[in-house]
């Protein structure tokens, strides 16, 4: 962790705390500061997770990375669930999925493609990723299609059951891709390098980083309602575009960096892997978490959200299925992201 | 045909007849007995068809197998059509399609994949099967999309025309896959072995088996209404899950057996071939049969049914398009089947 | 340009003018004559464009061909936009897309496949075409999904923005396929042969042909309303089937001719390329053109039209993604065209 990052991390976190507790800054300023702080603390959490994963050994480490890679989003969302802001939670889940599939992947393919004429990645992994993305869309689409004919109670039951099935499917996928079919699916690994810290420091930093993400998330969520009203933005747009872009800033830079190093396989793994994790793990876990807070968040997404997730998966699958990428495929993904962004902004 | 099977066949058929005609058993008992009887007589009909097909020579035999492979389902459905129970007919067509694509195929890939790391089948056949499944979904989806703006009379006309077109497409497909492009599409053939009976006996057994299926179907259908009410099950769930699983029991065991012998191509042919046959041949034939009974059954399926068929085809196509299978792909299919099962049960 | 064609061109154009200005012919006769004239003048315009493109050099020529290949449809549509007949414009856009993807491509594969057992084309181009067709469907589907929750003003804004994005994407596609990745995507080129005319004559003929198309289109459009009422046809059916078939007559014959010469790659390029151009260039340009006439045509297509375009793209993509074609794949496309034709006729 270089010096600049440390200073940025501490400064933005402290400023954000001051703004929140003293209340001297306007909601807008609070919002901006906590956005900046989120980017830093999410980056810090990512590094700490990676470092702990390194010491945990390959298999458990892979699991940790895969499961806590979106810890920041998960924590932000838990605070939103606690406050009963289910709509904004679903919007931010939607935004994370489409942000990873369209913006992160699109920028990676585009910027990587400007440097290299064609880039290649493991076609078998692409095919499995495609099928898993398809499962994710189906799992979100079926409850929505049936919800109109169900009572609230039945919808809750359906949501909890689907959530459990998805978590089971996700754990089996980890077992499949990390144990039984590890070699078939391996690609250029995401470069982790040597960890910067000792084992003890890594665990300590993981705990500290998690706490920092938790606090900053709470402060950010606190400003959302004011911001949304003040600028006349819909919750849908704020959740699906603003929060999602902020929460995924770390993935953005990592994936693009990989693509520019001609490691497009690693970039795809970050972008697609992350969106799969959100859909198949984070979303269902949030449904189960909401049970603990006493009011079940159902898994029924709005038509707009389903359209956004559906078209993102369709275009990403169409582009990635041949295992070859180029700059124009990045353009296609970014074009769809723009169209969705405009539609969400206007609605 | 081994001794145990013969005894089971005769015993279950006689018991089912007794239960129906004497009326001493409750509806539930009648239902259970005739379910068991259906499994046996469907198996008997399958064997008799295979045996006659053997003597008919390769080409006509292939045609017989392909066209009468789902004779049991067809006969059950004709009795339902005669009684005007169109909703349950459509539900059982839906159930047959998704049962074959998700449950039969899913179990085959899963159990085959536990034994063999990767299994392969003809990728060209997979691609054609995928396009045909796509046609099936389109042919069911278009009438449903237009039906709201059509009168009943126009919907009937549309249904009859679409039915004729689908039957023509199916016959051309048989011609294509069995005559003009036989070699390109051949895979490990489904093992038939030597027929157990002489030519005359085979024909006689085919007639007897058909009659037995017809009777048992009528008895089973007779109990459905009572059962549905008694257990508070929806017609949709009974048709799409109970009847479909019972009617396809023979395919289930055959496909799984093939997969365990590493003949995954044959398992896919049974599962996918069967669902194609239901969608492109059985369903349209039932529309035309309903004309004979004086009241046209239209081809407009409910939203739930279309969702179920649509997502089944999408996930099956996504999984089968690379011609390679493994246990996790089986899990994906079974997961979608579970989600649909829960949704249909609750609705 | 052979003698027969010249005579047909002049005769049909003069007759059509007479019928329109003297008014002695009934609307039906006027309609039939101008349909015939359209086929000739569209063919003339196509040849003139090709000839000018030849002199313009490879790159600019390719651009001209790609951009003005559908000039006839564009001109017809502009006259319809001027008269505010937005519904029939959208119907004819729909019809052009599905006509090219299903009828032109279907006939080419079918008739080519009767002569050659298997025909092959560049699988990389097929994959890119598939992704672009997917983008086209998404770009039409998203505004329709969101339009219900938008005001007319917001829908207009969304339409204009989406139109600009699509035109940008289309221009980048031309740059990609003609400059940066020309060699990867090249296939058997569409045969153009030596131009029949000198450079000056070519430019003169291009201007004359454009004017002739413009006049004939206006005469044809003038008869539409009468025809529609007289035969009880819906605008949807007239626009999506009659006008589309007439406007694409030149592509039909060219593509089928290529397929019969075993140049299936060229046939696919004509059919798929043409439908992409309609969706990604002609349709958005018409939205911008409508701005000039003072009343914005939005980009929101009806459910029926979206269903038709959606299923066409899905089946065409499913069939073309392996780069191999045969007669039965042609049948599948034609079957879907028939089903859609019947549904549009009845609705």
From TrEMBL, chains A, B, C:
<feature type="transmembrane region" description="Helical">
    <location>
        <begin position="299"/>
        <end position="316"/>
    </location>
</feature>
<feature type="transmembrane region" description="Helical">
    <location>
        <begin position="126"/>
        <end position="146"/>
    </location>
</feature>
<dbReference type="InterPro" id="IPR004837">
    <property type="entry name" value="NaCa_Exmemb"/>
</dbReference>
<dbReference type="Pfam" id="PF01699">
    <property type="entry name" value="Na_Ca_ex"/>
</dbReference>
<feature type="transmembrane region" description="Helical">
    <location>
        <begin position="270"/>
        <end position="293"/>
    </location>
</feature>
<feature type="transmembrane region" description="Helical">
    <location>
        <begin position="203"/>
        <end position="221"/>
    </location>
</feature>
<keyword id="KW-0050">Antiport</keyword>
<feature type="transmembrane region" description="Helical">
    <location>
        <begin position="29"/>
        <end position="48"/>
    </location>
</feature>
<dbReference type="InterPro" id="IPR004713">
    <property type="entry name" value="CaH_exchang"/>
</dbReference>
<keyword id="KW-0406">Ion transport</keyword>
<feature type="transmembrane region" description="Helical">
    <location>
        <begin position="60"/>
        <end position="81"/>
    </location>
</feature>
<keyword id="KW-0812">Transmembrane</keyword>
<feature type="transmembrane region" description="Helical">
    <location>
        <begin position="93"/>
        <end position="114"/>
    </location>
</feature>
<feature type="domain" description="Sodium/calcium exchanger membrane region">
    <location>
        <begin position="27"/>
        <end position="178"/>
    </location>
</feature>
<keyword id="KW-0472">Membrane</keyword>
<keyword id="KW-0813">Transport</keyword>
<keyword id="KW-1133">Transmembrane helix</keyword>
<dbReference type="InterPro" id="IPR044880">
    <property type="entry name" value="NCX_ion-bd_dom_sf"/>
</dbReference>
<dbReference type="InterPro" id="IPR004798">
    <property type="entry name" value="CAX-like"/>
</dbReference>
<keyword id="KW-0106">Calcium</keyword>
<feature type="domain" description="Sodium/calcium exchanger membrane region">
    <location>
        <begin position="202"/>
        <end position="340"/>
    </location>
</feature>
<feature type="transmembrane region" description="Helical">
    <location>
        <begin position="328"/>
        <end position="346"/>
    </location>
</feature>
<feature type="transmembrane region" description="Helical">
    <location>
        <begin position="158"/>
        <end position="176"/>
    </location>
</feature>
<keyword id="KW-0109">Calcium transport</keyword>
<protein>
    <recommendedName>
        <fullName>Ca(2+)/H(+) antiporter</fullName>
    </recommendedName>
</protein>
<comment type="function">
    <text>Ca(+)/H(+) antiporter that extrudes calcium in exchange for external protons.</text>
</comment>
<feature type="transmembrane region" description="Helical">
    <location>
        <begin position="227"/>
        <end position="249"/>
    </location>
</feature>
<comment type="similarity">
    <text>Belongs to the Ca(2+):cation antiporter (CaCA) (TC 2.A.19) family.</text>
</comment>
């Amino acid at each position: 962790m270089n010096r600049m990052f440390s200073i940025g991390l501490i400064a933005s976190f402290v400023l954000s705390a001051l703004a929140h507790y003293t209340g001297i800054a306007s909601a807008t300023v609070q919002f901006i500061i906590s956005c900046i702080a989120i980017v830093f603390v999410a980056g810090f959490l990512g590094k700490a997770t990676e470092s702990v994963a390194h010491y945990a050994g390959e298999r458990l480490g892979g699991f940790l990375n895969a499961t806590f890679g979106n810890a920041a989003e998960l924590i932000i969302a838990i605070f939103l669930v606690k406050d009963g802001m289910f709509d904004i939670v679903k919007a931010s889940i939607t935004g994370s999925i489409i942000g990873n599939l369209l913006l992160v992947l699109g920028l990676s393919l585009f910027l990587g493609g400007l440097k290299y004429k064609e880039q290649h990645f493991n076609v078998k992994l692409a095919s499995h990723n495609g099928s898993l993305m398809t499962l994710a869309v189906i799992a979100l689409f079926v409850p929505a299609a049936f919800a109109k004919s169900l009572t609230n109670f039945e919808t809750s039951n359906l949501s909890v059951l689907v959530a459990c099935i998805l978590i089971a499917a996700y754990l089996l996928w980890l077992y499949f891709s990390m144990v039984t079919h590890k070699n078939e699916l391996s690609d250029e690994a995401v470069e982790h390098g040597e960890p910067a810290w000792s084992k003890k420091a890594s665990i300590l930093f993981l705990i500290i980083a998690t706490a920092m993400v938790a606090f900053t998330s709470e402060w950010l969520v606190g400003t959302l309602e004011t911001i949304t009203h003040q600028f006349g933005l819909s919750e849908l747009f704020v959740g699906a575009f603003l929060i999602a872009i902020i929460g995924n800033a770390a993935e953005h830079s990592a994936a693009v960096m990989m693509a520019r190093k001609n490691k497009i396989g690693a970039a795809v793994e970050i972008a697609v892997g992350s969106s799969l994790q959100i859909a198949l793990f984070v979303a269902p876990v949030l449904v189960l978490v909401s049970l603990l807070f006493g009011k079940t968040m159902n898994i029924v997404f709005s038509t707009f959200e389903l359209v956004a997730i559906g078209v993102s998966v369709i275009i990403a699958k169409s582009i990635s299925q041949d295992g070859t990428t180029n700059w124009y495929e990045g353009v296609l993904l970014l074009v769809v992201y723009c169209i969705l962004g405009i539609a969400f902004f206007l609605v």
